[in-house]
Design goal:
Number of strands: 0
Radius of gyration: 21 Å
Largest sheet: none
Distance between the termini: 57 Å
Helix content: over 70%
Oligomer: single chain
Number of helices: 5
Order of helices and strands: HHHHH
Mean pLDDT: 85
Length: about 80
């Protein structure tokens, strides 16, 4: 989609390879449809993923989520 809007610089450099992939996907209309579907999948996935990660950090007390952020797994000694 970028190569069809900006014809100078990067858009001009990737125009020919982008045309190849455009033809593989069935034309510019299909590229736009695939782009919109992927955009909505990402827009739905990211908030759910962040919510589940925060929920796991708050409710799951094994420290796995905190280890992803800090690099250290803090486990309470009994």
């Amino acid at each position: 989609l970028y190569a069809h809007v900006y014809h100078n610089g990067l858009g001009g450099a990737i125009y020919e390879p982008a045309r190849y992939f455009e033809e593989l996907m069935g034309g510019l209309a299909n590229v736009r449809t695939i782009h919109r579907i992927c955009m909505w999948v990402i827009m739905i996935f990211v908030p759910i993923h962040v919510y589940m990660a925060i929920f796991n950090a708050v409710k799951g007390k094994n420290g796995a989520m905190d280890a992803i952020v800090s690099g250290y797994k803090f486990v309470k000694e009994h």
